């Protein structure tokens, strides 16, 4: 393993959640497999988030922040929303991008905002 490779990695550390106190692992498994928190949308500033949160607390914090943002969206301002400018990802997170209802995926407003436009299918949570 060369020094450049090690420089790019965030080594795994054992952390205590600053919210609930449980112990969890934080860091990159490899250069290709980043820390679990990289699956979430980059919506926090380091100063806001404090120290690392466990996966459950981090998901809850993301959900709250996203829900607050979604309440500011109307059909008039949806096309100019900031979520569409976030890095694109194929990883969907239950409770943030969608929920399950009778075995069916129901995409939430956040998912539609990230896409950036209406698909024309009459989605339940379409902000456009």
Automatic annotation (TrEMBL):
It comes from the Bacteria. Pfam families: DUF5522. This is DUF5522 domain-containing protein. The lineage of its organism: Bacteria, Pseudomonadati, Bacteroidota, Flavobacteriia, Flavobacteriales.
């Amino acid at each position: 393993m060369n020094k450049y490779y090690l420089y790019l990695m965030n080594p795994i550390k054992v952390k205590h959640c600053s919210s609930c106190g449980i112990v969890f692992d934080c860091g990159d498994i490899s250069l290709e497999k980043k820390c679990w928190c990289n699956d979430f949308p980059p919506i926090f500033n380091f100063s806001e988030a404090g120290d690392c949160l466990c996966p459950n607390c981090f998901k809850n914090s993301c959900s709250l922040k996203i829900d607050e943002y979604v309440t500011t969206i109307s059909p008039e301002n949806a096309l100019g929303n900031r979520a569409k400018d976030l890095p694109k990802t194929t990883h969907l997170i239950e409770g943030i991008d969608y929920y399950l209802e009778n075995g069916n995926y129901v995409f939430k407003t956040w998912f539609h905002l990230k896409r950036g436009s209406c698909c024309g299918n009459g989605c339940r949570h379409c902000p456009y």
